[in-house]
Amino acid sequence: MDSFSLLLDGFSTALTPQHLLFAAIGVILGTAIGVLPGIGPAMAVALLLPVTYGLESTAAFIMFAGIYYGGMFGGSTTAILLNTPGESASVVTAIEGNRMAKRGRGAQALAAAAIGNFVGALIGTIALVLLAPVVASFAVDIGAPDYFALMVLAFIAVTSVLGRSRVRGFASLLIGLTIGLVGLDDMTGQSRLTLGSLHLADGIDVVIVAVGLFAVGESLWVAAHLRHKQDKPIPVGRPWLGRAELRRTWKPWLRGPLLGFPFGAIPVGGAEIPTFLSYVTEKRLARNREFGSGAIEGVAGPEATASASASGTLVTMLTLGLPTTATAAVMLAAFRQYGIQPGPLLFEHESALVWGLIASLFIGTALLLVINLPLAPVWAKLLRIPRPYLYAGILFFAAVGAYAVGGEVIDLLLLFVIGLLGFAMRRYGLPVLPAIIGVILGPAAEQQMRRALQLSDGDLIGLVSSPIAAVIYLIVAALLAWPLLRKLIRARRQPGDRVDA
């Protein structure tokens, strides 16, 4: 009941004309950005971080949340029409959605995706309202050893499920942790990795790192692989669903959030895994044989899953200060830009902001459904923007944003050096998310580790002095040992299979 009254207060904050305007701007930007391949909500929020310095914090986060949810909605459009996911969470949608479009059922696929996103976001946000205060009240009693263990779990889990190999994931994490070390040590005042530069004594701003790795790195990568010939978008009619499609989609819409929300709340790399699980589940439960040739269930389930996972991500970020996706990592940087520390005390110290943000998610979800259904043909036209103009504009805004951070030319140099690093990471298959999480959580993890060691007079046992930390380290050990155990199990099964043969 307390959460309900706080949510009503949040609606009184979110329904002001100014905040409604920023919610609308956020969902429209997010949808447009989700439609355009290769950009994504993480890059959009990173580009807007410098622009929002002068905005009130609640308005800025309402806009960021709108971009996050809008990116989930818009990413399905290009996946269905061009077989090119605009957002990584829409990869699975492309499997059946594009085949539906080629069969002349693109309008139905877009409608199933839009309504699925609405249902998933609505259910996920309700779960956020119910669970976030509970998690926050539990997290108040978590000490330094527990926080450090949680951060180690975030590091290991994210690097274990992203990229082509674990080695590349850990290499990306190491890059992020190294960048996070640049500057003066908070406890000793000793300079670290500053190369004698006074400008680097304060460290490298997270905004510059995020914009460099996402926007500049992606733009350089696209430029290096740009092809002059572009596929022609498939014509789109007005999205609609008949009774037959509704009978086939309502169950996948409800099943999706059951997978998406819990997976979004744990650090396993975002919506990619639960959307795939949703697709497999719907394929097994389907009574028809359309899977592989354009089954609408293969669009409805994964899209509802993706939106619900975004709500789960916000639970972990707001209550524990742990980002589980790239967009959440950039939003965490935005919180720090405003001098706000996400965590268990956020619901007490910044109650108006948090509940206004949560209330705006309901408003943004409704706006997205209203905007996406009738305007799907308009969004499809964005795909005709020539790639050179699109990414040239992104580089321009990235440079302006980086210069606005400190007003110094060296910030631009750092931006493009980090952008080249982001290009190299893509070239060699290193995922970007572990690096961003390393930059943001690395200094905090170091601080929590030092606090735990101070409490134990330098004894390493202090890092596992609580039951919560011990359980988390057991989970970490299981994550690290599972690939080796899987190989041993396969090696034992092979001889038996040969004997049976």
UniProtKB/TrEMBL annotation:
Keywords: Membrane, Transmembrane, Transmembrane helix. The chain crosses the membrane at residues 20-49, 61-82, 109-136, 142-162, 167-184, 204-224, 352-371, 391-421, 428-445, 460-485. Residues 20-437 form the DUF112 domain. InterPro entries: DUF112_TM. The keyword Aminoacyl-tRNA synthetase does not apply. The keyword Transmembrane applies. It holds the Pfam family TctA. PANTHER family: TRICARBOXYLIC TRANSPORT PROTEIN. This is Putative tricarboxylic transport membrane protein. It comes from Amycolatopsis cihanbeyliensis.
